[in-house]
Queue: 2 jobs
Job 1
Amino acid sequence: GIQELDEPEVTIEERESYWFSNASPKSTISPRFGASFPFSDRGVIHFSYGHFVQIPRFNLLYMNSDFDLGQGTGNVGVIGNADLNPEKTISYEIGLQQLITQNSRMDLTLYIRDIRELTGTRSEEISIFGGVSSYNKLVNSDFAFVKGVVFSLMHQQNNGFTINLDYTFQIAEGTASDP
C-alpha cells in the first residue's frame, strides 16, 4: 500500500492491476522407457530412461505471501513465487543382474541424473522504497548433476532368512549445494 516515488498518482485498485499477476498454467510430458534383455539363463541386462517432474514444495510457492518485509535499509527479506516451474529430472540407468548360485544374485547398476529448474533465490535484488531497500524472490535458477553406481548382493537361505548387502557410490554436484 505504499506508493513509490516514481509511481503515478493512482488508486489502490489501479495499482493492483500491475502489482499482482496470476500464475501461469503449467503442463509437462514425462516420457519413460525401460527394457531388460536376458543374455543367458542366469543373467539379465536392464536399462531405463525417463523424464520426471515434481511440483516445488508449497512453502516455496507461498513463502511470505503477505509480503511482510522488514522496515530497514538493505535487503529486507525473501518472498516466495507462486509461478515457479516444476523441477525436472532426466534419468539414465543401465545395469547387470546375475544369478551366482541358486540362492544368490548380484546386481550392478550405473546411473546418471540431470536435474534442472531447482528453486533458488533470485540473484538480483528487487528495489523498493526508491532504492533504499530491496528484497529477493524465489525463482527456478539452480541445477544439479548426479552420477553413481549401486552394487547389491542378495542371498536367500533355505530357512527363510535373506541377507542383503548394498553399496552405493555417487557424486552429486550442483549450484547452491549443501551436504
Job 2
Amino acid sequence: ENRFGDCKDKSTLLFSLLKKLNLEPELVLVATNRNDPKRVIIPSMLAFNHVIVCFEYDGQRYCVDPTDSQTHWQYTPAWVQGKVSLPLTVHTQLGQVQKSPYRWKVHTQTKIVFDEFGGQKETQKRSYVGEYAAAVRSNLFELNDDDRLNKLTDEYHEVISSIGHPEFRVENI
C-alpha cells in the first residue's frame, strides 16, 4: 500500500522469491547491538532488532540484507557480521552472522610516468571489493558528481599531498 517496507517486509519478500527458485532460505533474526551469543539469556524482540535472509547456493552460504542497497548480494553487510543471530527454523540455536576474513579488499593498478623535466604523472585504478566496495559506495552514493569530486580531492589533499592536482573518474556507484 505504501510502496515501502522495513527489514521484515523485504526479508519476507526475498525469502519467498528464493523459495520460488527452489533454494532453501531461512529468515534470521539479528541482534545488531550484540556480539556474544552466550550473553543473550532469553531471545526477545528487545535483543533482536533486524532480520536478514540466509541460504546456500552453489556450495556457499550467503546472508543478504535486503534493506542494504549498497552491498552486493554475495557479501554479508559489514554492520551485521559477527552479530548474534537466531535462524527462524526448527531446532535452531543462537549463533553469529558469518564474518568475512577479508573485509577491506581493494585491487589497485598504478602507473607512474616521468616527464623530461623530472616531474611525474601517476595513474591509479582502484577497484573496491565486497564490504569495502559497499562502504566506499555508501560514502559517495548520495553526493552529486561535483560533491563527489570535491570529497575525493579533499581526501587526497589530506592523505597524499596538498600540492598535487588529482583528477578522478568514479564508476559503478
